[in-house]
Amino acid sequence: MRILFFGNSLAGHLLPLLPLARAFRERGDSVAVCTAAPASLLFDSEGVEFLSVGPTPDVIVAEVLRTTGHDLSQGATVETEAEYFAGARIDLTVDEALAMARDWRPDLIVAEQADFVGPLVGAILDVPVASLAYGPAWQSESVEPLATRLRSRYGARGLVNGPPRWYLDTCPPALQHPDWEVPEGRIGLRPEAHRNPGQEPAATPGRDAARPCVLVSFGMFVNMPEIVGPLLAELGQLDVDVLVTRHRFSPDDFGVDADAAGRVEFVEFTPLAELLQGVDAVLTHGGAGTVLGALSRGIPMVMVPHGAGQPALGERVAAAGAGISFPLHEAPAKAVAESVARVLADAAYRERAEKIATQIAGLSSPADVAEHLASALAR
Questions:
Q1: How do residues 32-80 score in pLDDT, each as one tens digit?
Q2: Mind listing the pLDDT tens digit for each residue in 278-288?
């Protein structure tokens, strides 16, 4: 079979696709990923075909600024995020993606939930689509701005936007909205902390250290020194070791005090599965991959949301008792550090995170989901 994956060219959007892509590849299926060129680095060692399609995120951000007057680099709203994902990105990508998909001839399209190019391509080519969701289902206030833009894009081609044939759900029950109506075609899919090819998933081992360890991970775009630096300064007042993902910045950019420097370690891009080894708590902006990866290991967290979709996930984590989450743009560094100390001191947070880890372990493996989809397509 031929399986074509679609996603936004951001690590947090593409990495959740990898376990299922690997499962199809290990079945012997032909697998390709369709997204913008810079993301090719994520797939160099994956043994899948990379189809370079569409502009980079900065070009889409510029298009949103041109059409709406809103600069996404200064913050996002539900409306401007909808314009990015379901407006500008479709307009700048779909024709090229359609031509590429026609040539590649997929039997199935798998699109991460914020990718709307793949489902439109599937509708045009009459190829079944599976949508891979990470985190709790989107609420109506997020869905309607997306739906408005999708109706116009589908309508321009004489099509009606409908639900995918399959909804691949990586959200454990404890994090799902209590009033959520399970969609037709829902399949539970076990999320994994990102790991290198061939590296087996592993439980977080006990850590032989005098101090607890806190992982500070704010993704590829939010981990700016002006955001993370003040948090590190306050964490330096705690008796903890700190592991920080620095990405494109140098350690000096974060201004860590010399007295705390010996307890702070900066790392470049490293698979989350490795970063979580021996970690006692996670401080994060709330990207779904980081949140679900940490919870799959039973690790509690403190969340400082920065994107329009992250507060909702933070609310669900807090409601489940597995962490503390701050409102959007309301996270003083001192209060954040105090929350980290609270999560470390109160064993109830870890106990609830471990219960969620048990729920995640009970979801279907990527291999089982790949087999299920392949069998359904073969009927």
A1: 999 999 999 999 989 999 999 999 999 999 999 999 999 887 777 889 9
A2: 999 999 999 99
Domain identity same for 147 and 249: no
Same domain, yes or no, for 39 and 153?
yes
- Looking at residue 58, its amino acid is D
Enclosing domain of residue 293: 213-361
SS3 253: helix
* CATH number for the domain harbouring residue 219: 3.40.50.2000
- Is 311 a member of any domain? yes
CB 335, CB 326: distance < 8 Å: yes
Which one, of 52, 54, 127, 110, lies nearest residue 85 by Cα? 54
Instruction: Say if residue 41 is in the same domain as residue 11.
Output: yes
Q: Report the relative pairing of strands 264-267 and 108-112 from DSSP bridges.
A: unpaired
Which residue, 248, 225, 16, 21, is CA-closest to 133?
A: 16
The set of long-range contacts for 340-343, using a CB threshold of 8 Å and a minimum separation of 24, is 340/214, 340/235, 340/238, 340/240, 340/281, 340/283, 340/302, 341/238, 343/281, 343/300, 343/301, 343/302
**339 contact partners, CB below 8 Å, separation of at least 6:** 302, 324, 326
Token pair for residue 305? 């949301």
Does any domain span residue 15?
yes
Neighbours of 118 (CB within 10 A): 28
Give which of 376, 4, 363 is closest to 187, Cα–Cα: 363
The DSSP secondary-structure symbol of 309 reads: T
Residue type, 265: E
